[in-house]
Automatic annotation (TrEMBL):
GO molecular function: inositol monophosphate 1-phosphatase activity; metal ion binding
Family matches, as PANTHER family: INOSITOL MONOPHOSPHATASE, INOSITOL-1-MONOPHOSPHATASE-RELATED
Species assigned in the record: Acidovorax soli
Residue ranges, annotated region (Disordered): 279-312
Descriptive protein name: Inositol-1-monophosphatase
Family of the protein in this entry: Belongs to the inositol monophosphatase superfamily.
SUPFAM superfamilies per record: Carbohydrate phosphatase
C-alpha cells in the first residue's frame, strides 16, 4: 500500500485484499462451497459471508465510529448515525463464482454525508486493484486510468446485465438490448456490475447499463467512472441515481448517445415515452403471433405435399 494514498483508501485496500484471499482459497475447491438461495437466481455462499466479515472487521478496527451498509448484513454493524458509511459488496458476481467462471470482485466504497469519496474494486482472480479518491483520479494497479476516447456508438463495446429476478420486465429488457445491439460493435454480459463499471473507467468498454442494481453494486464503480473522466447516472441522464435501481455509465460522448436510446425505458421516462415503448412491444407481439399463425397454416400444406411425393 502506498503512503501517498488517502489513509481511508489504504484501509479499504487492506480489507479488499483480505477478502480476496478468502475468495481465492475457496475458488480452488468451489464445488465444496456451501450455497443458499435468497430468491430465485439470487445466491449467497459461505464465502460471501466470510468475505464480508473480514471487510467489516478491518474497517471498524481502523474506524470504529463509522457506519456500515453491507449486502449480506445490511446496517447490523458499525455506528448508526455516522456521516461516514462504508458500502460493501463482499462478492459481486456470486453466480459466476459458484460456477468457477472467473468474473467476480470485491467492492468497497466510502460515502461521506451521502457522497462517495473513496472506492476500491478488487478482482482477486486477476489480482487487479481499481482505486479512486474523489478529486484524485482513478487507478488500476497504481496506473492512472481514463475512459475510452471513442465517439461513435457503432465502434463501441457496451456491457450490460440481464434481468434474472421474479417480476423483472424481460420484454422491456429485450427491447433495450435490441436498440443498443443494432447501434454498437458489440454487447457483453460479464455478470458482475461493479467490475463492469471498473471496466468502463479503464476504457476496456465504452459504456454500461443495467436495471435492478442495489447501491452496493454501483457505489464504488460510480466514483471510478467519474474520476476516470466518464459520466454515470440513471437512464434519463440524471446523476442522482445510487438508489434508483437503474444505472448508465460511459465516456461523455457515448453516454450522451445512450441517454436518448435508453431514456424511454427509464421508470422516470415521460408518460409519452412509456406509451411508445408499450405500443412498440404490443406491435412486436402481434407480428410474432402473426408469424406463428402463418407457420402453423403452412404445416398441413407441407405435410400434404410430402404425402403426394411419398412412394406407397
Amino acid at each position: 500500500m502506498s503512503s501517498t494514498l488517502h489513509p481511508m483508501l489504504n484501509v479499504a485496500i487492506k480489507a479488499a485484499r483480505a477478502a480476496g484471499a478468502i475468495i481465492n482459497r475457496a475458488a480452488l475447491d468451489v464445488e465444496s462451497v456451501r450455497i443458499s438461495q435468497k430468491q430465485i437466481n439470487d445466491f449467497v455462499t459461505e464465502v460471501d459471508h466470510a468475505s464480508e466479515k473480514i471487510i467489516i472487521e478491518t474497517l471498524l478496527t481502523a474506524y470504529p465510529g463509522h457506519g456500515i451498509l453491507a449486502e449480506e448484513s445490511g446496517t447490523e454493524y458499525g455506528a448508526k448515525d455516522s456521516e461516514f458509511v462504508w458500502i460493501i459488496d463482499p462478492l459481486d458476481g456470486t453466480t459466476n463464482f459458484i460456477h468457477g467462471f472467473p468474473v467476480y470482485c470485491v467492492s468497497i466504497a466510502l460515502a461521506v454525508k451521502g457522497k462517495i469519496e473513496q472506492a476500491v474494486i478488487y478482482d482477486p482472480s486477476r489480482n487487479d486493484l481499481f482505486t479512486a479518491t474523489k478529486g484524485r483520479g482513478a487507478y488500476l494497479n497504481e496506473r492512472r486510468i481514463r475512459v475510452s476516447k471513442r465517439t461513435q456508438l457503432k465502434d463501441c463495446l457496451i456491457s450490460t446485465g440481464f434481468p434474472f429476478r421474479p417480476g423483472d420486465n424481460f420484454k422491456s429488457y429485450l427491447a433495450m438490448m435490441s436498440d443498443v445491439m443494432q447501434r454498437t460493435a458489440g454487447l457483453r454480459r460479464p455478470g458482475a456490475a461493479a467490475l463492469d463499471l471498473a471496466y468502463v473507467a479503464a476504457g476496456f468498454t465504452d459504456g454500461f447499463f443495467e436495471t435492478g442494481l442495489s447501491i452496493w453494486d454501483v457505489a464504488a464503480g460510480s466514483l471510478l467512472v467519474t474520476e476516470a473522466g466518464g459520466l454515470v447516472g440513471n437512464f434519463t441522464g440524471e446523476a442522482d441515481f445510487l438508489e434508483q435501481r437503474e444505472c448508465l455509465a460511459g465516456n461523455p460522448r457515448i453516454y450522451g448517445q445512450l441517454v436518448p436510446i435508453l431514456g424511454k425505458y427509464s421508470k422516470f421516462a415521460s408518460a409519452g415515452d412509456k406509451a411508445a415503448v408499450r405500443q412498440a412491444a404490443a406491435t412486436d407481439t402481434q407480428e410474432a403471433d402473426g408469424a406463428a399463425d402463418t407457420a402453423e397454416s403452412a404445416t398441413p400444406q407441407a405435410d400434404a405435399a410430402k404425402g403426394e411425393d411419398a412412394p406407397f
